[in-house]
Amino acid sequence: MSIQLQMLGTGNAFAKKYYNNNALVHADDYTLMIDCGITAPLALHQLGIELDTIDAILVSHIHGDHVGGLEEIGFRGYFVHQRKPVLYIASTLISPLWDHTLSGGMTQEGISSIDDIFDVRPLEPEQPVELAPGLKIELIQTPHIDGKYSYSVLINDHIFYSADMKFQPQLLEHLVRERGVHTILHDCQLYPPGIVHTTLEELLSLPDDVCRTVKLMHYNDTKDDFVGKTGEMEFIEQHKMYTFPE
Ligand SMILES: O=c1ccn([C@@H]2O[C@@H]3COP(=O)(O)O[C@H]3[C@H]2O)c(=O)[nH]1
Ligand SMILES: [Zn+2]
Ligand SMILES: [Zn+2]
């Protein structure tokens, strides 16, 4: 079974030429949205994608470009569709997401918990879960902001979706050489230093067999200045549909 991937956006948190780096992953007739940033509802609208065609949302970490669209999606589910969106999320992120991000705007008569809005499905890292036939995901905790939880996603054992993370060359080598990963979708900060992200320079330093699996996402508005300067790595384009083999 192949996986189709369409990036709602490929921009970094401050990009204005690209929507937030959020993804739609299709397996057979199931669609998972990875992250739902501030611009995600608008990107879905621009692409003519209806909310009821999305079967679940997965949250990698709590930053606006990854969860800033959840209030709108949640309220539309509650007040318009009378349907709770399915939310896959690491158990460590559930309280911070509600207590520090969503409750301010969403708490009111009848709404006092994340469970009033979402059908929350807690996940644990390193524990694979089959969401639907042909779509298995496994959270891998990765470093992003010191003291805050953040997770990358392994899809069907073969596609690694970094979300936001600092450079972890040993992990990337292990995934390609030991776990059989053939595609790495990686955040890419075009300019050093990569304090909380991985830089293009760091990704170019990977061994060839690892580097050639990497596709670049979560990039600055100046991406076009770097086309042709990324070695064997390709930039993922937003809205384009990609098919990755099993
Ligand atoms: O310690 C910090 C925390 C945050 N930031 C910036 O805020 C952004 C939040 O979204 P992001 O994770 O996609 O990217 C982050 C960076 O651009 C930073 O530079 N250093
Ligand atoms: Zn981000
Ligand atoms: Zn982030």
Automatic annotation (TrEMBL):
<dbReference type="InterPro" id="IPR001018">
    <property type="entry name" value="Beta-lactamase_class-B_CS"/>
</dbReference>
<comment type="function">
    <text>Counteracts the endogenous Pycsar antiviral defense system. Phosphodiesterase that enables metal-dependent hydrolysis of host cyclic nucleotide Pycsar defense signals such as cCMP and cUMP.</text>
</comment>
<keyword id="KW-0378">Hydrolase</keyword>
<dbReference type="InterPro" id="IPR036866">
    <property type="entry name" value="RibonucZ/Hydroxyglut_hydro"/>
</dbReference>
<keyword id="KW-0862">Zinc</keyword>
<dbReference type="InterPro" id="IPR001279">
    <property type="entry name" value="Metallo-B-lactamas"/>
</dbReference>
<keyword id="KW-0479">Metal-binding</keyword>
<protein>
    <submittedName>
        <fullName>Ribonuclease BN (tRNA processing enzyme)</fullName>
    </submittedName>
</protein>
<dbReference type="Pfam" id="PF23023">
    <property type="entry name" value="Anti-Pycsar_Apyc1"/>
</dbReference>
<feature type="domain" description="Metallo-beta-lactamase">
    <location>
        <begin position="19"/>
        <end position="218"/>
    </location>
</feature>
